[in-house]
Amino acid sequence: MRARLLITLILAVPSHVSAQHEGHGHEATDVTSSGEVGGEARRPAGALGLPMSRVGSGTAWLPDEAPMRAFHLRSGDWDLMLHGSVFVGYDYQASDAGDDQLVSQNWLMGMAGRRLAGGYFRARAMLSLEPLTVGKRGYPLLLQSGEQVDGTPLVDRQHAHDLIMEAAAMYERDLTDRLAFQVYAALSGEPALGPVGFPHRPSAMADPLAPLGHHWQDSTHITFGVLTAGVFTRTVKLEGSWFNGHEPDDERYDLDLRTLDSGSVRLTVNPNARWSLQASGGYLASPEELEPDVSLIRTTASASHARRFGRRAWTSTLAWGRNTPSSGPATDAVLAESVIDLDHLGATFARAEYVAKAGHDLALGPAQEAETFRVAMLSVGHTHPVLREGGLETSLGLRGSVGALDADLESRYGTRFPLGVMAYVQLQPQTMQHRAPKPTNSQKHAEDWKRPSTRAPLAS
Question: Nearest CA to 450 among 436, 423, 432, 437?
Fold first, then answer.
């Protein structure tokens, strides 16, 4: 019921606009003066003629062949985009530490962009109703940790996203025919640290639950105060950020702006249209509210792969993150996730994780807070489309998971192999069909995208 408002907002988009990208930051404009190529609205190239499909959350890159979901509308010189995803379902996490809850994980993002001063300007705003539809204590997720509520650490639960997930502006421009620069400023946004945030990774879009290694790999995807600058070629990007290292507090409706006290650097390489590789490192000053005197060094590396087969796609991500705090043991998290989307046959996904968590991450008390405990989780699921109408796709999904714990944690959970299941409905824009590039003299690497088909509703 609480998700109805967000669903209404998405449904309010005119049904005749063309559906496009699945990720976090894929704006569009025309690459020709007419804006038409063979009767179809044409996708733009960004600086250096790079396709906008490469842009992920914040300033992170995706593979060029990453599947795309969004709505696109042209208004004068402005390109307007709307992205979104809504999950509504029943989450049941078994074991002695488990819980169950009817929840909705969701986000809605609007973007506007135009040519400006020889380059391209974009503004983005992203909202989530999770403070209402998930609640202050978050949703049940066994072995998860990170952030706090009312002075108590959240354990075996995933926190809700803030109402304002992003409020940012970006500008990029060619310096030469082989080199360009980019600047990004955000009241709420993402610094150059880690892979594309999990809500916006194509390999994670069908999975309603957050990774267990979120706070080792991409937890800075909502940071209140970010400045980023970078230079890039068509295959390599080097960027650095100055940002607020504090994680959001448990008041989800405000902007937690503080002094910019942290920094990061990221190197990304896209060797071809199917791969994106990144390595990054950052210093976070006092990220945890319950441990204000503890800072940490975060190091990450990831590889993302995407392969398109018409309206079908196979996308995968392998990611590693390491937190080295100023007090306590260094710990690592490794993730491998993949999804095969067979269009009308639905999307099948899997995620495997290994995380070494300190005792204080699991709130085990002073006697064990310096110890390290190994946990792992395997999750599989499937979403099946049941209705496609007006550029929107409604799917039914089922997700199951099994964990594996250190023997020392068995007394807490009552088992070494806790189980979880979630049945849900997902609402999102349809996937665009990729067409071969048609380069122009000024934009040699521009890409075309077809309007999605308006076929009859699918049988479940």
Answer: 432
